[in-house]
Write a structure and sequence with these properties.
Elements lengths: L2 H12 L3 H20 L4 E3 L3 E8 L2 E4 L6 E4 L2 E8 L1 H14 L1
Antiparallel strand pairs: 1-2, 2-5, 3-4
Helix pairs in contact: 1-2
């Protein structure tokens, strides 16, 4: 499912317009990105947590040239699924398999 399909599904389930749902989805995504970018966490109980993590600097090898390249320490986003989310996915997997 992509973003526009998500907006369509939410609009259908809520009876809201696609435009209104699109604004809410965009605002939510923007707030999550802004908060995590500033070093904060966003926790949606039952769904999951978005948080920043530090990736250590390291040296890698360019596969084409063999040249060693240094990658600086950087922040990266991480998502951890919540227990309700995990349980529902596991239950669906058990039903299929």
């Amino acid at each position: 499912m992509n973003k526009s399909e998500l907006i369509d599904a939410i609009a259908t389930k809520t009876g809201l317009t696609k435009s209104a749902v699109g604004q809410v989805v965009n605002a939510m995504m923007g707030e999550v990105v802004a908060t995590v970018s500033e070093g904060g966490m966003v926790t949606l109980v039952g769904f999951g947590t978005f948080r920043p993590v530090v990736r250590a600097g390291r040296e890698v090898k360019n596969p084409k040239t063999g040249e060693r390249i240094k990658i600086e320490t950087q922040m990266a986003p991480r998502f951890s699924a919540g227990s309700t989310f995990k349980e529902q996915v596991a239950a669906r997997a058990r039903m299929r398999g």
